[in-house]
Amino acid sequence: SLSLCLCQSTSSSEMDMRVLCLCVCLLLAGVSALRTYFLNSPFPTFPQKPTDTQPVGVKDIAPARPAEIKLPGIVVYRNGSYTRTSPGQLNELVSSDPRFVDGVASEDIVVNSSSGVWVRVFLPRVNLSLKWSENCSKLPLVVYFHGGGFVLGSAAGLVFHDFCKRLAMKGGVVVVSVNYRLAPEHRLPAAFEDGLNVLKWLQSQATTLEGARAFLLHANFSACFLMGHSAGAATVHHVALRLAANDLFPLKLAGLILSVPFFGGVMRTQSEIKFGGEGTSLPLLVTDAFWFLSLPKGMDRDHPFCNVLAAQAPQVNTRVVGRALVILGGKDLLYDRQLLYVQALRKAGLKITLVNIREGDHGILVKGYAIEELDQMVRYTKQVVES
User: Fold this and answer.
1) Cβ atoms of 248 and 199 closer than 8 Å
2) Is there a catalytic annotation at residue 288?
């Protein structure tokens, strides 16, 4: 129809005008298409600067789409494909050791051979004849979930292995570190389902002590804590949600311990904009890549797996657990989201102990704040069990 319209023109000036109008229309259409593409793309974007009328968050409108994003252990390409690479610090693997080395022994146990889920159990060398509390001589049980954006990390990873070892020794607790399935090979909710299945496995161990693994014979299954860092802390939240529909007696949940939980959303918060630039411990570009790889295909960051405060997101049931310790870093890009999460837990009726490490960011586990963080966790578990 456009060709017919041009051919009907008898004046060259009139034809020139029609051609000019056509070019303008095509240009505007192209700009509109590009803008729509960038706004709706789930792949890493960068936020605009907030205005005074947008104190909570703003939508991404000026995305930076690099050809690839290199992370420790994986490279993510612009088209959404990825390549697993040589392990970085998060993925450097160490073996378990059933001997007591530095006061702690460890053992790997397969929980589900079909899914490949296994756990690493840490047992401290303590005088088990002495009562840990007035009511029980056995040791509290901590079920730990490692971080890594649901894409990286392992229960055998050096950073997480060393943390669990220190926690077991200093806290006098049995630690069960979960090696859950990773995205994008296994997208969410695979990690959450694995966490729940590990708790069901622990329930079976508690009810058949004669056949339980030796390391677990010293665990107090009625004083169980769910603990995690970053994506592991988010996993703690989602596993706790699933407990509402599952009776795990005699396994009893004593509390949740969440350190810098990894949450997200489509709208950017002030802390994300302030602390999420390049060169930080966790840039926005990386968080977006993690969510792009881990969320169900086609879902954006307002999915309840990511945005736990979305309107359709379920909330933790106080009948499942009544208290939680939440550790935040004052310079974490996710600080605003985490603080809103704490407020939501309190509103739901949970008793919350909040620890704010003011100078800490999302990488407190691998930085100089790990000792302070560990002390807070140990102190909390003792207070809860002794109460």
Assistant:
1) yes
2) no
